[in-house]
Amino acid sequence: MWTWFHKFGSPPWLYSIAGSILRWLVPITVILLAVGAVWGLLYAPPDFRQGNSYRIMFVHVPASVVALAGYYVMATAGAVSLIWRMKMADIALRSCAPIGAMLTFLGLLSGAVWGKPTWGTWWVWDARVTSMLVLFFLYVGIIALYEAFDNEELAGKACAVLSLVGTVNIPIIYKSVDWWYSLHQPASIKFTEDSTMDGSMLRPLLLMIVAFYCLFASSLLLYMRSEILRRESSTNWVRKLVLAKAGQGSANAV
Amino acid sequence: MQFDTVAEALNMAGHGAYVWSVYGVSLVAVTVLLLGPVLRSRRLQRQQLALLRSELARQQRASQSNAEGEE
User: Fold this and answer.
1) Where are the transmembrane segments (chain A) (predicted)?
2) A6: Cβ–Cβ under 8 A, 6 or more apart, which residues?
């Protein structure tokens, strides 16, 4: 286990293993997203009460679910970076923030657009929507905090602490629809009992959730690779990599 | 397929503008999430290559002037 741990801490190893995973993960992500979107948009039946506006769900639910799960990944990376001072965990933490911010933004925006024809309003200050907005500010806060420090190590520590403090928000988001009665409906997909959604809508939704998890993983690995390149730019292995790629490029040009 | 014509699919019984705009924004978001870091990596590699080349040129100039000095 410790060999694996040490390997994971090595930037060149992580860079190359991420590259080989991405070669198949990105095509799978794109295919799943395309199939899920077409299924949800054109083939799933309309909802008997909401009509076609409910098709926004196939983006809204996966984006929000993965934005939340992304926070777990970020906070775990924060904890690992604080406890073991692992450089790669700090890179993962920093890479999670823009992806989480984008997915939370997508969840909030799609929710607002879905709210207009369904609730008659773009926005309500209820517990679920507000706690999701707090999640968005947490992600943006991490990005801003990294930029605010000149000392990268100090920035990493501050962001790790902020990411851990922010986990308080996660159970609030999960439980908000049960604790406070509001316009936002409670969860339709349940692990412990039958879902309250018909299979013809549930199947494309589950596919889109899987697709968004793959999107998160792909984007995380891509962001981590670029962050590794930035931090390791003066090392020998990056110099060799850059020269090898330039050699390939000029060979292709000839 | 739930819609018979393209116009019906676009209109979605009055909800088309809401639904399609969300899917449009999602497409942009997915593109940014996948392409953004790739472009950043390429830019970093280009910068590093330019740095290496200028370093190499400086070294060559230095060794040339050393050789001329010895002559």
Assistant:
1) 21-44, 56-84, 96-115, 127-146, 158-174, 205-224
2) none
In Å, how far is B35's CA from the nearest CA of chain A?
A: 9
Average pLDDT over residues A56-70: 95
Residue A135 reports pLDDT greater than 90: yes
Per-state percent for chain A, helix, strand, coil, to nearest 5: 80, 0, 20
In three-state secondary structure terms, A51 is strand
ipTM: 0.89
> CB of A25 within 8 Å of any CB in chain B?
no
Q: Which amino acid is at B33?
A: L
pTM of the model: 0.91
* Burial annotation B22-45 (CB, 10 A radius, 16+ → b, else e): bbebbeebbeebbebbeebbeebb
pLDDT band at A254 (very low <50, low <70, confident <90, very high): very low
- A108 CB within 8 Å of a chain B CB: no
- Report residue B14 as tokens: 């009055």
